């Protein structure tokens, strides 16, 4: 039997792929904007400092 392969798709929201996007994918990315992940928890260093997700509001 032949295994069915799923079509390969590029994640247009992954910055590593932005150099390889065609014009249609770039248009979609510009329309929707990049995806932001606010669920990341950054560990504290020895001085109890850590990165924080800042809330950016559109005016």
From TrEMBL:
Q: What is this protein called?
A: Uncharacterized protein
The organism encoding this protein is: Aegilops tauschii subsp. strangulata
